[in-house]
Amino acid sequence: MDYKLSVMLVMGVLACAWAADMYTDQYDNIDIEEILTNERLYKKYFDCIIGNGKCTPDGTELKETIPDALKTACAKCNDKQKAGVEKVLRHLLTKKAEDYKILEAKFDPEGVYRKKYEAQKKLAEEGKPIVL
Question: Where are the annotated coiled coils located (predicted)?
């Protein structure tokens, strides 16, 4: 096999392997601010995530991603996704505390992640940046 072709093949395989280690960026341009400030949209996404409503394709992706993102502290998130997570966490912690408790009961019933994320909760309450 030609050397250039071999290098291209290896690079392609590595790119695929790297991409598999990241969450899809297909929904990165969704307006999170609009969802958080529009109660009707917010409720649809929230109901989807907790299993009480129909999900849009991006809602399904989010619902399926949350357990792994919690477990890995968003290690497979790109920078835009991390910024979105921070925005959503801040909103939940400061404006939707009851919803945060519902999500915590669903995704962390054993309290495994609770201690890990207590520092983020304190930062959000103080209006400081949340570190993922």
Answer: none
Higher-confidence residue of 111 and 28: namely 28
Residue pointed to by tokens 């304190």: 122
Say if residue 90 is exposed, middle or buried (CB neighbours under 10 Å; 0-12, 13-18, 19+).
buried
Q: What is the pTM of this model?
A: 0.72
* Residue 13 structure tokens: 């395989």
Which amino acid belongs to residue 47? D
Question: Which tokens belong to 41?
Answer: 């949209």
Q: Around 45, how many Cα atoms within 13 Å sit in the side-chain half-sphere? A: 20
Between CA 4 and CA 105 the distance in angstroms is 53
* DSSP H or E stretch at residue 125: helix 114-125
Residue 55 φ/ψ, nearest 5 degrees: -115, 140
Tokens read off for 90: 């801040």
Domains of the chain: 3-125 (1.10.2080.10)
Per-residue pLDDT reduced to its tens digit, 16-33: 334 458 999 988 999 999
